[in-house]
């Protein structure tokens, strides 16, 4: 495990240590190399990345920061191990198309037995899983704009110290972020979401505004979708059709909240028509735990498939 001392890495170490078929071969850190860390009932020693015996592992997870991960994924593959990269480096839309993308429920056939998988970002996991059935079933209006407001807990920003993430800055506050040069719709997850949604048949524009929630973990995405025509009958029918029997997708008639999903490897989705609009619109809500389904849980789900294990093994439903 590379980047084991970070938020995603620690979550992943816990899953690996409790997994019935996995053993943790090594756990690396950068500033925290040499530290002995307590993870619940487990204790682990962080070694330097350069000391990781990559060839001793069957599969290596990289939870290194984006920019630093790509080079290490190359080294992992050269050492003969499989790799799951949690960073943005190898995701679609980032100049690396063709590498299997581990949005498991939608791309399972590409992940199965693959030697290398790029694990999705946390916001894209919630948002793409929520809108994919509408895209795949051609239900979104031509030339529409899908508007996404999503809020994340602060672990989404990683655990390196940042002034704007100090307790005194975020507690009892709520703000949008991800602007550049006075403009919005520039968050780095947009490339990934645009590339994947286009591959799923999307011709709509995507407007995405992330917000910072003063909680540790969890993402709630509120998505407004212009429809080609009103949906009659069961409004969740497109999701039931797409995700029938999926163990990690939950459909609900009630708006999902973070308490429903934290520490669980699920995407919880609700949909409801909007009244008072000139053309048919749907509100889709999706909640995930950014560190679980949005990172470590999905990485284990993918690793299970890559290694020919049952997809759900070692994962909290
Ligand atoms: N946090 C999330 O919700 C989330 C969700 C999905 C995907 N991801 C992705 O997962 C990756 C890790 O995210 P995170 O939030 O866990 O970040 P983090 O808390 O900042 O952890 C980064 C990890 O990488 C190590 N590291 C930092 N710079 C390094 C370098 N130059 N060389 C080698 N190791 C280095 C850190 O070691 P030290 O601790 O010793 O400095 C730490 O183990 C990122 O690529 C992120 O985009 C995160």
Please describe the structure with a list of short key phrases separated by commas or semicolons:
317 residues, 9 helices, alpha/beta, 3-stranded parallel beta sheet, 21% strand, binds NADP nicotinamide-adenine-dinucleotide phosphate, 14 strands, Dihydrodipicolinate Reductase, domain 2, 7-stranded mixed beta sheet, Rossmann fold
Task: Give a quick rundown of the structure.
The chain has 317 residues and is an alpha/beta fold. It is built from nine helices and 14 strands.
How would you sum up this structure, described in words?
With 317 residues, the protein is an alpha/beta fold. The chain folds into two domains: 7-120 and 294-306, Rossmann fold; 122-290, Dihydrodipicolinate Reductase, domain 2 (2-Layer Sandwich). It has nine helices and 14 strands. It has helices at 7-18, 69-78, 104-111, 122-136, 167-170, 189-199, 237-242, 258-261, 292-306; strands spanning 28-29, 36-39, 42-45, 47-48, 59-62, 82-85, 116-118, 145-152, 175-176, 205-212, 219-226, 249-251, 267-273, 281-288. The strands form four sheets. The chain has a seven-stranded mixed sheet. Helix 1 (7-18) crosses helix 9 and helix 4 packs parallel to helix 6 (189-199). The longest helix is centred in the middle third of the chain and has 15 residues, at 122-136. The radius of gyration is 19 Å and the shape is globular. The two termini are 23 Å apart. Bound molecules: NADP nicotinamide-adenine-dinucleotide phosphate. Residues 3-9, 29-32, 49, 63-66, 68-69, 86-88, 121-122, 155-156, 158-160, 290-291, 294-295 line the site of NADP nicotinamide-adenine-dinucleotide phosphate.
